[in-house]
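Q: Can I see a sequence and its folded structure?
A: Here is a first one.
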Amino acid sequence: MTIGSGSRARDIAVALALLGVTSCVSVPVYQKPVMPAPLAWDTPESWRPAAPADQLPRGTWWTVFHDDALSGLEAQVITANATIAGAAARYEQARALSSVALAGNLPSVDASGSLTQERPTGTTIKLGPSVSYEVDLFGKRQLNIAAARQTEAGSADDLENVRLVLTADLASNYFTLRRLDAEIAVLTQSLEVLQRQFSLIQARHDGGLTSGLDVAQQQTLIESTRTQVTLLRDQRAGVEHAMAVLTGQPAPGFHVAVAKMPTTVPSVAMATPTDLLERRPDIASAERAVALANTKIGIARTAFFPSLQLFGSGGLKMDSIAKIFDAPSWVWAIGSTVAQNLFDGGSKKAKQLFAEAGYDAAVADYRAATLRAFREVQDSLTTLGAIDQARTSQAAAVSAAERALAIANIRYAGGIANALDVISSQQALLAAQRTAAQLDGARFVTTVQLVKALGGGWQ
């Protein structure tokens, strides 16, 4: 419709008055959930973490192991892992939604045209744009923008957490592979010794100096050792297959070369329990979720207040295209509408209660995440302490088993002891060496888990 200047002035005055209304909706004041944190970690006496001047690298934390093969595999995880790619895509979706929310700050402009034939007036042609804009009187649009940004930040944290978890999984599998390589090497070397010992027993048997029982017992130990090698190689293949998936490659044809276990575990600069709440991406994501839930309470409250829509249009209205430049053909209109739902059967109140319950759930999830983080760090520290103690005693056990086997061999060669003493000593040494290799592998895997628990890769 076309309005006069007086009417237009009144409409503008009303719109300006409404724009000046101070927001009646208040979002609950957000406060980060308070989670009591221990003052220090309960570090076992046998294990004291070093505190190097350079802190643990955040982005490529695995480089502290100084293992080129591991670093190459981790690079493949970052670039080719399907789960990371999915998390990255979801982050881009969240960024796009933030842009959508920001676009709501601008008015909507549409163009339209129509051709109407009426009798007896004839043909009417209308051409022109129309503009509409919803005034953010009570902050709903700004709250939606804040919610979109909080969702985007949470998605960024989730992406970092996925990267941390999967790179830690790859490192754990890698050191498990090295532990299996060490065990296979122990068994393979033992087979060579057992085979030489079998030749000696066979010769003594052929000379009538020992019974067939000694030969059978030694052969039993040899074959059972070969069985263990076969089973360990099967385990190794399974670990390789898991690593193939992590690096985004098909399991068939994926192989990691055999190598020795590293000799030195890197020092890990320990974060305090309070610092942990800032370092771990899963905790950061949980805290973002609390902030988002708080914002959603404010969004639910805005539904109780009216909305103000401003609109305007202009263009041409004529009965012939030939009159397009005639001044009377140019028309315009502005106006506003106020809408308020008066009765909804309690829907708005229920949505507010839903949002408030969502906030309580998010706080509970945040507290659960922090408690889980404290536990994971403490578990790793306790386990590392136990492993260090066990490695010390196991090294003594290996030395004792080596001495026992040497004595048994001397006594057997001199005819003082029987073959069973030698076989028992061989079994004891083999078991001691395998346990030592397992402890070395567990030390590296647990160190990886400690780095992960500390939030190693998060920036």
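Q: Show me another, different protein.
A: A second, unrelated one:
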Amino acid sequence: MSTRNLTITTAIDMEALGARLAAGMKPGQLIYIRGPLGAGKTTLVRGVLRGFGHRGSVKSPTFTLVEPYTLSALTVYHFDLYRLKQPEELEFMGWRDYLRDGVCLVEWPERGGNVLPEPDLDVMIEPLDHGRNVVLTAHREQGSAALKGLLA
């Protein structure tokens, strides 16, 4: 397990962090993005999508639970579990199938309870007086590869 701790001062910097993370992501990866409301989770996801070449809008799929983005290299599935009523709902929607061909970015993973496995990479965003503290923890080799994208 490896960890990186970064201070991010602007939304532009948060998007840039996401784009750098995208450089190390591959299909089948599960990334958790944690933090309080307004921390910048969706901004980080927007950066990941921009890193893969997406140029359209990016919104949090709060009511639909998942928004797919089919890109040239792979499909990114953006989950927002904030309004998930029961973790078992994830099983009914077949969430495991999403991991077969894409990268899954999951906001509010704690709402998934024991249904979700340990992620490849866990991103915690903590608001500061001026900016955000971002703690990135790789739990598997695939997560470590995404962290290496930060050095590119």
